[in-house]
Amino acid sequence: MSKFQFKAKDWNGKVVRGILEMADKSQVIESVKSNGLILLSVEEERDNVFREIHRKLFVRVGLKDVSSLTRQLSTMMTAGLPLTDALSLLKGQAEGNMAVYEIVDYCLNQVRGGQPLGKSLEKYTNVFGEAYIASISAGEEAGVMEEVLSKLAKNLENQDEFNGKVKGAMVYPVIVVVGMLIVAFIMMIFVVPKLLGLYADFGTAKLPATTKALMAMSDFMVDWWFIFPIGAMGLYGLLKVGDKNPNFRLKRDSLKLKLPVLGELTKKTTLSNTIRTLSMLLGAGISLVEALRIVSKVAGNEVYDQAFIRIAERVQKGFSISNSFEETAVFPVIVEQMVATGEATGKLDEVLLRVSDYFATEAEQSVKSLTSAIEPIIMIVLGIGVAFLVVAVIMPIYNLTSSF
Question: How far apart are CA 105 and CA 103, in angstroms?
């Protein structure tokens, strides 16, 4: 695919410029003309290596940016603005955010050249996700873009709000744990060796077991401290390599779901996100089998990824969706019951949305329970560590003074 700059006029005489990515110049000409424009010129654009490197390294768009962009586009189109005018306004508003500006500018050029918005967004699948792009494409085909954008905006806002609550609840425990590890690392390498150097003349036979253990740990940390960053990088690399293997991902994600407290939180969060996405896709008019396959790619957990794939395969073979959910033995009973209700009433998307809200509420409660449990555990661990350090350092002094 090559990039082509084009210049054209609409029927009102307004000059329109844009960039299209297509196989050859003839496709560009056909696309521009099919959009009702009078083509003036077409030139192939040469790639800018430095601009491409900058885009890959520094262009980042978060969930909040996508949510805000979708809500603004929904509001403009609901008010009756054509898609090109709405994108032009968004482009002007996004000048302070180069990442968003680049996306809107690209989509605007593609739409002006005759490409659908859903097709234009495929270049940024890593930003918007397959479910988002599929919903936009379905909305364009059915002529209900305003409704789809409104549902997408609400879905993204709910997801962003939930993620914010989870992150907010975990900030304090994470800061305390990281702080403890940093302090422990500094103490064992720089402080403890100097304190224990006072006992060098005593001989190890005269030192208490706690002091000997502290000295052994400190000596190990001083001599082999580099093992920890190397080990961390090695573990990260191993996980990255293993992430390409479905069996490894399945075992890893199954283990995650079995962890105390954290497993339940992961399960409820995944269920909330996947079921909400499935509801949104069905509401956008996407077929059930296709919606299930899309959700299987965005679940983020191999256990549920494979479960949704199996459900899609069974539904395609003619099995009922409620029976297919039950057959996986992965989903809670409430999901199976509510899916059966939605299937019987013909309002599956609405029922799934209620189920998603239920699990989102449950996940919030799990987060509160987790933070409530973590705080006293941190205090206990911190207390034990300080007590061990005090005993290991003070006990030899006490033994020395009591011997006189």
Answer: 5
Q: What is the pLDDT of residues 25-72, one digit of tens each?
A: 787 777 777 766 777 787 776 655 555 554 554 456 788 888 888 999
Of 88, 109, 140, the closest CA to residue 37 belongs to: 109
Pairing of strands 2-9, 38-45: antiparallel
How far apart, in whole angstroms, are the C-alpha atoms of residue 188 and residue 229?
16
Token pair belonging to 25: 């110049």
Number of H helices, E strands in the chain: 19, 3
- Cα distance between residue 70 and residue 157, in whole Å: 10
- What letter does residue 18 receive in the DSSP assignment? E
- What is the rounded CA–CA span in Å between residue 36 and residue 262? 56
Answer yes or no: are the C-beta atoms of 281 and 136 closer than 8 Å: no
Grouping H, G, I as helix, E, B as strand and the rest as coil, residue 73 is helix
Determine the Cα–Cα distance for residues 295 and 271; give it in Å rounded to an integer.
Answer: 11
Instruction: For residues 185 and 218, give the distance between their C-alpha atoms in angstroms, rounded to a whole number.
Output: 9
Query: Tens of pLDDT along 343-358?
Result: 888 888 889 989 988 9
31 and 112 Cβ atoms separated by less than 8 Å: no
